[in-house]
Amino acid sequence: MTKENIILAALRLFLLRGYKYVSLWDVALEAGITKGGIYHYFSGKEALLRAAMYYLFDRFEAKYAEVFSETRTFQQILQALLIDREPELFAQQLLGVEYENYRLDLALFALEIMKNFPEIHKRVEQGQACIFALLEQRVQGAMRKGELRSDLDSRAVTLMIFAMLNGQNALDLQFNTPDMRGQVLSNLWKLIKAAG
Fold first, then answer.
1. CATH code, domain carrying 127
2. What is the CB-side half-sphere exposure of residue 110 using CA atoms within 13 A?
3. How far apart are CA 75 and CA 158, in angstroms?
4. Is residue 19 part of a domain?
5. pLDDT for residue 176
6. Which domain holds residue 110?
7. Total domain count for the chain?
8. DSSP secondary structure letter of residue 194
9. 36 or 95, higher pLDDT
10. pLDDT at residue 88 above 90?
């Protein structure tokens, strides 16, 4: 559990402060261990960053797979993503950080990491491709079941939803209220639901 505690402490600090402003000493204090305890698991700050980012991506992909479960209707999936914001709540619970406290720093952190660590950037792209593919499978299934209009292009519908999710996260909090998210879901559903 100590290795996981170190990873979670590092992720929390990286999100709140940015990678370059976090030392291994900071991570050790946050995790409640000695700096030497970090070296027991990681060769240095870059190795910790890689492990932490891969840990986070693996957890997010698993969470999205859970959200896209066959036990949910497609409308329930959209509800989970756009209204309930299950992936964001999962991140808050996993990291112990409120979304509002790190959402602005997240973009800067992502830019910093992707610019300086191309292999992590590649892993981000792989994760996005995985989530996109899972969502596209559910869109296609919903079209076959008659939940969604079958005259629409499944890839285009998937891209619209994917872009909407990413855009929602980038919006200022005044535009990202539960009421506004509800209106977005309602209008999206009217556009893509099957007649009947």
1. 1.10.357
2. 13
3. 14
4. no
5. 75
6. 50-192
7. 1
8. P
9. 36
10. no
Look up residue 68 and give its DSSP letter.
T
Closest to 157 measured CA to CA, from 106, 194, 107: 194
Residue 173 domain flag: yes
Q: Is residue 157 part of a domain?
A: yes
Mean pLDDT along residues 78-103: 84
The residue with tokens 């808050």 is 92
Task: Say what the pTM is.
Answer: 0.86
Rounded distance, CA 175 to CA 95, Å? 25
Burial (CB < 10 A; 0-12, 13-18, 19+), residue 62, is exposed
The answer to whether position 11 is within a domain reads: no
Quick one: which of 160, 156, 158, 140 has its CA closest to 148?
Answer: 140
Among residues 185, 189, 88, the alpha carbon closest in space to that of 142 is found at 189
Separation of alpha carbons 24 and 104, rounded Å: 23
Beta bridge partners of 193: 148
**Where do we find the tokens 């969470």?**
63
In sequence order, which ranges of 68-177 are alpha helices (DSSP H)?
74-78, 86-95, 99-116, 118-144, 154-170
Give bridge partners of residue 148 from the DSSP assignment: 193
Take residue 23 and report the two structure tokens written for it. Answer: 């030392």
What's the full length of the chain, in residues? 196
